[in-house]
Amino acid sequence: MADKKNQQVAVIGAGIIGICSALQLQRAGFAVTLYDESGLAQGCSKGNAGHFATEQVFPLAHPSLLKKLPGMLFNPLGPLRIDWRYGFKALPWFWQFVKNMPSKTYRANTQALKALNQLAIPAYERLLSEYHLGHLLTKKGSLLTFETTPLSKIESMLDSYLDQGIAVELLDDEHVRLLEPNLAKTITYALLFKDVAHSVDPHLFCLHLAEQFCALGGQFCQQKITAIQPVKQGYTLSYHDQKVTADKVVIAAGAWSKTLLKPLGYKVPLDTERGYHCMLASNYGLSRPVASAERHFIMTPMSQGLRIAGTVEFAGTERKMNNKRALALLPNAKALLNKSAISLHASSTWMGCRPSLPDSLPIIGSAPNHDNLYFAFGHQHLGLTQGAVTAELITALCLNHPPQIDIHPYCVSRFSTQPACSKAQPHAQ
C-alpha cells in the first residue's frame, strides 16, 4: 500500500459525521478532501437539538409503540406525522421497522446502540482536548420530565436505564425545580441523566472542528458528488462536468447516501425522519436540555436562546418545510415552562432530514464488495452524539487497524443478501 500521506481520501458529506471523519483521517496522515454541495454543517448538524444523547440506547422499534401510534398520528401537536402523499413509499421502511420489534432483535440492537454511546463522549473529549476546544462540550446532564405518568411506570423506566449502566437519578418535583426553577409546577418527576452533554451552538461546534481540519491541510470542496465509479486503483468521483480520483472514499452523506450506494449494488432501507425546531429569543433560565416524556420534544438552552426541537415527519427529502410542524412545538414548550413564558414567539424555525434506518442503528464499516470504500451514515437522532466515535471507527478501518468495538452489527449487509462485512476484532478493553 502506498504511503498514506500520498493517499487521497474523499469524504462525501460535511455534516458532523463527515467533518469528524475528515478531521480524524487528516490527523492520521491521509490527504483528505471533504465534499458537500450545501456547505459545512448545513443540514441536521446545524439545526439539531444540541443534545449528546448517550442515554438513548433503546431502539425506537418496540411493540409498545404500536398502541401509541393512532394517538400520535391524530394529535395535531403530536410527535409523528406521515404525509399521505409519501405514505405508500414509506411502507417498506415501516415493514422493516416492525420486523425489528421481536425481543431478541430488540435486545441485540440495544446492545449495539449502547456500545456506540458508551464511547461517544470520551471520543469527543479526546478530539476536543487535542485542539483546546473542551469548552464546546457542556456537561450538565439532561432531564426527562413527567407530568401525568404514574410513578410505578417511571420507576420501571428508571430500572431499565440502570440495567443498561446509564447514570440516572429519579427526582421529585421539589428537586426538579431546585435544578431548573423555571419549569412548570405541573412536572411531578424527572429522570436526571448525569453523563449527558449538550452544545450551546451545534453549528459553531461543527465549524470549529472543520476549521481544525482545514488548518491541518484538509480541503473542502462545495460540490455535489453525483457518481462514484470504481477504477483499477481507487475511485473516480463525478460532479458537474468534472471528475476527480481518490484512493479511498467515505460516504457520510446522511439521508442522501442511498442514491450514491444504489449504483454500486447496495440497497439500504434508508428513509428520512424530518425533524423541526423553533428558536426562542430567551433561554428562559434553563441550564441543561429538558425533554418531555409525554409530549415527545426537547428544549435546549443555547447561546442564541432556547431551541425547541422534536417531531418526526415522513415526507421524503424533496417536499418543502411544513412550518405548522415547527410552530406546533410552541404550545408544548409553553406548558413545560413557568408563567414567565406565557407568551412564546418563534424567532426562527427550521426543518432537517434525519437519515433513519428501521433498526435505529447507523451503517458504519467497510463496503463488503469494494475495497477502500467505507460507509458512515444513518445515525437517525444520534448523529451529533455519535460523530466522534464513528470517526474513530472509520479511521481505524482506513488504517487497517482493529476498531475499538465489534462493528459487525452496523454492517450494510444486515439489510441485504450481500456477503457480510468481515468481523473485525476489537482492541482488548
Automatic annotation (TrEMBL):
Keyword Oxidoreductase: yes
One annotated GO molecular function: oxidoreductase activity
Class of the enzyme per the UniProt entry, highest EC level: oxidoreductase
Boundaries of every FAD dependent oxidoreductase domain copy: 9-397
Pfam families given in the database record: DAO
Domain of life: Bacteria
UniProt keyword list: Oxidoreductase
Classification via InterPro entries: FAD-dep_OxRdtase, FAD/NAD-bd_sf
Residues annotated as signal peptide: none
Keyword Oxidoreductase on entry: yes
EC number(s) per entry: 1.-.-.-
Matches recorded under Gene3D superfamilies: D-Amino Acid Oxidase, subunit A, domain 2 (3.30.9.10), FAD/NAD(P)-binding domain (3.50.50.60)
Entry-linked PANTHER family: GLYCINE OXIDASE, SARCOSINE DEHYDROGENASE-RELATED
Protein's name in the database: FAD-dependent oxidoreductase
